[in-house]
Write a structure and sequence with these properties.
Elements: E1 2-15, E2 18-24, E3 37-41, E4 50-58, E5 63-69, H1 73-78, E6 86-93, E7 106-112, H2 117-128, E8 132-139, H3 148-152, E9 155-161, E10 168-169, E11 184-189, H4 191-200, E12 206-210, E13 225-227, E14 236-238, E15 245-246
Parallel strand pairs: 7-8, 7-11, 8-9, 9-10, 11-12
Antiparallel strand pairs: 1-2, 1-6, 2-5, 3-4, 3-6, 4-5, 12-15, 13-14
């Protein structure tokens, strides 16, 4: 993990209050796994950095792609940054998704809202290994859709929206495909979604990536502590440094 002033080479709104931010710099060469994140210092006005998952990496261009949603004053201020500006970035942080499935196996990717971005880089890594990828993506409404075509280019896609304006009305757990041929699942999204996915897919091997507010982003401040299960035996883990990716049986989801 390093601190670097990365250059903005692309920045645009791609859905309702959802932005694509492409940054160029050395950090792009340090990303080891999908599911890692960077910590952004928006400006000196905002003391805490904003953690944002890495959605894609381009070794050729030396860039990382971030997809973020405006959630407050800090991310609102981030939308004002322009191509050519530089951002104070720390990263890549966290332990991401293991990419160990074998050629010919099948994977199920389940993402909700801003939990969808890290699954895109994961889908690319899995398909490169010859793994068949099936994705279930949940959004609030049609206006919030992003990266649907990009996921479709990598495998089958099922869409859900809360209001039914696109895909199936309901939640991601309402649109899961047949699990007969699925060897492993991967999911990222709000805690309540992860809890329901974990329950629905109990017994199927998988990984969950947890969205959590962070302070330092390196495991020193204990702001993102999560309780573990008795079988894990650790008592607690830090989402920023031990995660954000865990086995579902390791952590207690509130």
């Amino acid at each position: 993990m390093i601190r670097e002033w990365m250059s903005i080479v692309n920045h645009q709104e791609i859905a309702s209050q959802t932005y694509l931010l492409e940054l160029q710099g050395e950090i792009s060469s340090l990303v080891k796994r999908p599911g890692q994140f960077v910590h952004i210092q928006v400006s000196s006005q905002y003391f805490l950095r904003r953690p944002v998952s890495i959605a894609d990496v381009s070794p050729v261009k030396g860039t990382i792609t971030l997809l973020y949603k405006v959630m407050g004053d800090g991310t609102e201020a981030l939308t004002n940054k322009r191509i050519g500006d530089k951002l104070d970035i720390v990263g890549p942080g966290g332990n991401g998704f293991p990419v160990e499935q074998k050629e010919g196996e099948e994977a199920l990717l389940i993402g909700g809202g801003i939990g969808i971005p890290p699954l895109y880089y994961l889908a690319k890594q899995l398909t490169a290994r010859g793994v068949k990828v099936n994705s279930v993506l949940g959004y609030r409404s049609k206006a919030d859709l992003f990266y649907v075509e990009e996921f479709k280019a990598l495998g089958s896609v099922q869409l859900t929206t809360n209001d039914g304006s696109a895909g199936k009305q309901g939640f991601v757990t309402d649109a899961l495909p047949s699990l007969a041929n699925i060897d492993q699942y991967y999911t990222c999204g709000p805690s309540i979604m992860l809890k329901n996915v974990k329950k629905k897919l109990d017994g199927l091997p998988g990984y969950i990536s947890i969205e959590e507010r962070m302070g330092c982003g390196i495991g020193a401040c204990f702001a993102c502590v999560l309780e573990t299960t008795e079988s894990c035996g650790k008592g607690y883990v830090r989402v920023c440094s031990d995660g954000p990716v865990f086995r579902p049986e390791e952590v207690v989801l509130s």
